[in-house]
Design a protein that fits this description.
The structure holds 3 protein chains of 3 kinds.
Chain A (H helix, E strand, L loop, with lengths): L7 H16 L11 E3 L7 E5 L3 E7 L9 E7 L7 E3 L5 E3 L2 H9 L6 E4 L8 H8 L4 E2 L8 H6 L4 E4 L11 H5 L4 E3 L8 H5 L1 H7 L4 H23 L7 E4 L6 E5 L4 H8 L3 E2 L9 E5 H7 L5 E3 L7 H7 L7 H5 L1 E4 L20 H13 L12 E2 L1
Helix pairs in contact in A: 7-8, 8-13
Chain B lengths: L4 H22 L8 H9 L6 H36 L11 H19 L9 H25 L3 H25 L2 H11 L8 H20 L1 H7 L3 H6 L4 H23 L5 H13 L4 H23 L10 H19 L6
Helix pairs in contact in B: 1-13, 3-8, 3-11, 3-12, 3-13, 4-5, 4-6, 4-7, 4-11, 5-6, 5-11, 8-11, 12-13, 12-14, 13-14
Chain C lengths: L5 E8 L8 E4 L2 E2 L4 E6 L5 H9 L6 E6 L2 E2 L5 H5 L2 E4 L11 H6 L14 H13 L15 H14 L4 E5 L7 H17 L3 E5 L3 H4 L5 E6 L2 E6 H7 L2 H4 L6
Parallel strand pairs in C: 4-9, 4-10, 7-8, 8-9
Antiparallel strand pairs in C: 1-2, 1-3, 1-5, 5-6, 10-11
Classes of the chains: A alpha/beta, B mainly alpha, C alpha/beta.
Chain lengths: 376, 342, 244
């Protein structure tokens, strides 16, 4: 036997096999130096650290998408076909929440194109937008392909609410521009949303920096959760939103909203529901079940109680309108309606939680102690 | 007109059925409300707690009466359209009124989001009603002025249908440019809802429908004559041009108001007049006007009950239910009466 | 000389002012007169009758009914003076024969169509005159063309207007029914003192009974008394081909 593998022909045969297996380049095969990173909270992505870069995987980045995953290869070397060279220098974003991630990584200056730029709250970025240094690429169904191509982006971070809209990005991919799907808004865990910071950081080769940042945010958040749950005085009942045409669309019991309320020491009245997305509830039922809520959050765009009454005069008989604490997360809005809650709020879940804790547990709520929320 | 004893009996049965369905539909909902609760509400409110009173008044009673008004009103409008156009497939929306209402709501919900306006009333019930009324009124204006100028019935019908088509195209442009949330809000409006009204809104709707009913009943004779043909009607003393304008006006008010409050609800307006003609075996409007109203109320109450029947799926949009109940009726009646519809 | 019930003054009828179908029409209808409107197809008979009824606006000229211009009559007023039987009854509903005849009383019943004794009487009389008593409860789609036509005539009679205008009433009827119909019309003028204007091709049946004939042709309209027409051979107007 030991003579067999010494023969040159056999050597050649085995050598070829070894070479072939080591040169196979599909994202699915793990190589020896692959270091997959286990996320603490996020389920929508996976990072695999490698010697020359990273392999990123995104899972089901749109609603009603099932068992779809996307792989992206990032490399520090010169990029071959289907690879993205990092650090990237020119970026296009399709959502204002992406802007927050970039700002946190100090890479917002790499932004060259954005969708709905007038909704950006971040002053530096919107300043660059209004000076023309960042171009608007249109939106959802109406992307301006010429602008996108002229910007020569290294990557475009895509956002699609519906599985069916994923197709509109095929044209962009056909132009050779890498499209990377971001599904942070679908994370049922608040810290899971923030954890996408790690995902973004790979594009700038700043994974360790991002780890440090995220860990401290998560730490602060969890400390606040501990103080909140230890608070004596019970959990206030919470309702959110406003009805439309006799139906109240409310977040499901397993949505991020429900867990956020629980973390802040409150009790969402639909916390026993099992959906992660919104559920339609007949207005009559909400009226009956929510009579005793003590906190009413996010009544759409309203800024005072009179406006709530105008939306539906039946609210006059709804005790919470008169008795509950009503707060809306639109304290930080730019004049075009862009809400910072959906932007920097993603990377400051601890501040959001802090606001809610004040709302739930302060005997008298001081407006100044709230960052994202205003009291109606 | 000859009196038909059979019809008196049929009216009696129809009235009883309507009342029974009213009481049954009243009891449908997650919270348990019984018949005795209703009686207490009507006669001795001190026996009930405040929450139940509010629930009964603002939600149950309002929803049930809205069903009666919307079902009866739309069916009445459908009868008017079928008589004035002498066409069995005409319905309350043939003049483009519901499209006009839809455009008003589309501009409010989607157009404002496109323009970047972000005020509280975008998702407000009452502003949606105003916007819908404005759109419906605009279409009504166009249709009435066309009918005053045109000699021909068919020309006005064509104008109405084309106007509806143009408006639908405009709405789809708005849908193309608006964000997903606004589009969803508009789509939900388009599914129709009987529970979007407060008690006061319902009273306003009731007044309008009642006045329209009285107006319709007062033109039963010319409508009967109109079924003989425009020339024969004119020779018998009917001012056909004035009749047309009056009929269009009543229809626009009925269809426009109901669509403004409840969103567009289809198929009932076309199916119910045929059901009534088949049940009462007459073409006379003196019998049909009240018959169609009651039958429409019955069908709508049934549809409302059905929309709550699929417990796990939640509440079905009313438009889906009326389509499922209305279409088979239309097909059955059309096949059965192939020779003549009236 | 009795006052004319209907008198047209230089009437021009048609659908477009540039191409009137008939012009300079000056004709008269006297009470109890039976007038026949004759002419080839397309010569303007129906257009003339429709204009006289007020269903089509006159291009120029005037129509005087009982000395008053038709323009001064309301719809209701006109319906008490003129009644009409169209050539083809395109009534597409399922009224019963009785309901059809009853609509004749529309100008006299109120908004709720309540029938008085007089109304009942006129309906019953018209029904009897046309021999429709046996089929009163049949619906329109259950009777023959002739019966349907008779119902429309009974309706016009029940309307009790002094002038009855019929547009080719015999077109779809069989020969015996045509004779029957002409007899009824003659009775209406003789006994009920109605003035009747009808358009028809049945020269042979009508000639013996009519009082006047209006000939319509490309050259215009010519009205002749039946007796005098026999004498001066006015038929020439009708057959304007020299060979005939």
């Amino acid at each position: 036997m030991k003579y067999l593998w010494c023969k040159p022909a056999v050597l050649l045969f085995w050598g070829t096999i070894v070479m072939l297996t080591s040169c196979t380049d599909s994202g699915e095969n793990r190589k020896a130096d692959d270091k997959p990173i286990k996320n603490k909270y996020a389920r929508g992505f996976e990072i695999i650290q490698q010697s020359q870069g990273y392999t990123l995987r995104v899972f089901d980045p749109a609603q009603n998408s099932k068992n779809n995953s996307y792989s992206y290869r990032l490399t520090r070397n010169s990029a071959k076909k289907n690879e993205i060279h990092v650090p990237v220098k020119r970026i296009i974003c399709c959502s204002t929440s992406h802007v927050a991630f970039l700002s946190a990584l100090n890479e917002a200056d790499k932004l060259t194109g954005i969708s709905t730029g007038k909704l950006v709250f971040d002053t530096l970025v919107s300043g660059r937008f209004y000076r023309g240094e960042i171009l608007d690429i249109g939106y959802e169904t109406t992307f301006d392909m010429e602008v996108i191509v002229s910007l020569k982006p290294d990557v475009i971070f895509a956002y699609g609410v519906d599985y069916n809209s994923l197709g509109s990005f095929q044209k962009i991919e056909a132009m050779g521009i890498p499209v990377v799907w971001i599904g942070e808004y679908l994370e049922p865990d608040i810290l899971g949303r923030t954890e996408w910071l790690l995902f973004f950081s790979c594009f700038f080769d700043k994974l360790n920096y991002a780890h440090v940042q995220f860990d401290s945010i998560a730490d602060r958040y969890n400390k606040l959760v501990t103080t909140a749950t230890q608070h004596k005085g019970g959990r206030p009942l919470v309702i959110t939103g406003l009805p439309w045409r006799g139906t109240w669309f409310v977040p499901g019991g397993k949505s991020y909203f429900s867990s956020l309320i629980r973390d802040a020491g409150g009790e969402y009245i639909f916390s026993k529901d099992t959906h992660t997305e919104s559920i339609p509830v007949p207005l009559e039922d909400v009226f009956y079940q929510a009579q005793n809520v003590s906190v009413w959050l996010n009544p759409n765009n309203c800024v005072n109680k009179k406006e709530i009454l105008v939306t539906d005069s039946r609210f006059d008989n709804f005790a919470p309108l008169h008795q509950a604490i009503i707060c809306n997360n639109n304290k930080r809005m730019n004049h075009n309606g862009g809400n910072d809650f959906w932007e920097s709020g993603i990377i400051h879940p601890d501040i959001v939680l802090n606001d809610l804790i004040h709302i739930f547990h302060d005997t008298i709520i001081n407006e100044d102690s709230l960052f994202y929320y205003r009291k109606l | 007109m000859q009196k038909n004893q059979g019809n008196t009996v049929r009216f009696g049965i129809l009235l009883v059925v309507t009342l029974v369905l009213l009481i049954l539909d009243f009891q449908i909902g997650t919270t348990h409300i019984s018949l005795s609760d209703l009686i207490s509400f009507l006669f001795n409110q001190r026996e009930l707690d405040i929450q139940k009173i509010s629930l009964i008044k603002e939600f149950r009673l309002t929803r049930v009466i809205t069903a009666v008004l919307a079902g009866g009103g739309l069916s009445l409008a459908g009868l008017l359209m079928q008589s004035i156009f002498r066409n069995p497939l005409a319905g309350p929306y043939v003049l483009g009124v519901s499209s006009g209402a839809g455009l008003g709501v589309a501009i409010l919900v989607m157009g404002a989001s496109i323009a970047g306006v972000n005020v509280f009333f975008l998702n407000s019930g009452i502003f949606a009603v105003f916007a819908a009324m404005a759109g419906a009124a605009l279409v009504m204006l166009i249709v009435i002025s066309a009918s005053l100028r045109m000699r021909d019935n068919v020309t006005v019908l064509i104008i109405g249908i084309l106007l509806g088509a143009v408006i639908t195209a405009l709405i789809s442009v708005l849908q193309f440019f608006a964000d997903s949330l606004s589009v969803k809000s508009f789509v939900i409006w388009g599914m129709g809802s009987l529970s979007a009204l407060s008690f006061n809104n319902m009273v306003l709707l009731a007044v309008i429908i009642l006045l329209s009913f009285i107006a319709t009943f007062s033109i039963c004779k010319p409508l009967n004559l109109f079924l003989l043909g425009e020339e024969n009607a004119s020779v018998s003393g009917v001012n056909t041009r004035k009749l047309r304008v009056v009929v269009f006006a009543i229809t626009c008010v009925l269809a426009g108001t109901i669509t403004a409050f409840c969103g567009p609800i289809g198929f009932i307006g076309i199916a119910v007049p045929h059901m009534s003609r088949w049940m009462f075996k007459t073409a006379s409007h003196f019998v049909l006007v009240p018959a169609v109203f009651l039958t429409g109320a019955t069908v709508m109450l049934l549809s409302d009950m059905l929309s709550y029947s699929f417990g796990n799926a939640g509440v079905l949009p009313i438009n889906a239910v009326t389509a499922v109940t209305g279409v088979p009726v239309i097909i059955y009646v059309v096949i059965r009466n192939q020779k003549s519809y009236f | 000389m009795t006052k004319p019930l209907l008198h047209t003054v230089d009437l021009s009828v048609g659908y477009s002012a540039k191409k009137p179908v008939l012009s300079n029409v000056t004709v008269t209808v006297l009470p109890s007169e039976l007038v026949m409107v004759a002419g080839r197809n397309g010569s303007g008979k129906s257009t003339l009758l429709t204009t006289i009824l007020g269903l089509l606006p006159a291009l120029s000229g005037d129509i005087l009914i009982k000395g008053r211009s038709i323009r001064k009559y309301s719809h209701a007023g006109r319906s008490r003076t003129l009644s009409y039987v169209p050539s083809k009854s395109n009534v597409i509903n399922n009224f019963t024969i009785q309901q059809i005849i009853e609509t004749g009383r529309a100008p006299y019943t109120g908004w709720n169509n309540r029938f008085s004794e007089a109304d009942r009487f006129h309906v019953d009389e018209a029904t009897a005159n046309l021999g429709l008593s046996n089929i009163l409860h049949r619906r329109l789609n259950e009777v023959s063309d002739g019966e349907r036509q008779k119902a429309m005539i009974a309706r016009a009679i029940a309307q009790d207007a002094p002038i009855i205008i019929l547009d080719e009433p015999t077109a779809f009827l069989d020969y015996p029914t045509r004779i029957e119909l002409i007899q009824i019309l003659k009775m209406l003028t003789r006994e009920m003192k109605k003035a009747i204007v009808l358009s028809s091709h049945d020269l042979d049946i009508l000639l013996p009974v009519v009082d006047s004939i209006w000939f319509c042709s490309d050259n215009g309209i010519v009205a002749e008394k039946a007796d005098s027409m026999m004498q001066n051979n006015g038929f020439k107007m009708f057959f304007n081909k020299p060979s005939l």
